[in-house]
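Example record for the data management plan.
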Amino acid sequence: MNSVLIAIVLIPIIEIYLFIKIGSQIGALITITLIFVTAILGIFYARYEGINTLRSGFMQLIKNELPVYEIISGAAITIAAVLLIIPGFATDIIGFLLIFPFTRNLILKMLSSKIQVKKSKNEKFIDGEYEDLKNEDDKKL
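Corresponding structural encoding:
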């Protein structure tokens, strides 16, 4: 089954379960307030981290270096901001993990190592030799 379809089904189920469990422990009004507070704090911090990433990316460009890490980090911050906007505790936890630089670096390193392993398994090389026929035709003239 497609992992996106599974995520679309499981995420709301997990969020509803957490709403019920946490709401029964701390109360409905505090639960709703907590959801709004985490979303607002997360968006402000995402903006802060996004500006820092842009600044770092421009510094890389000034040094004539490709800002690869900054591009990937910016995408992770964007995903984190979206997760923080979506109401829920599980998405907020994942969003905050992606926003903080230390945990974002750990997550990106884990994902990049999995991509490298998967990429190396799918690579197939074909060895061969070739001749430049154009140069041989020029010699005959």
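Summary line stored alongside the record: Residues 3-119 form one domain.
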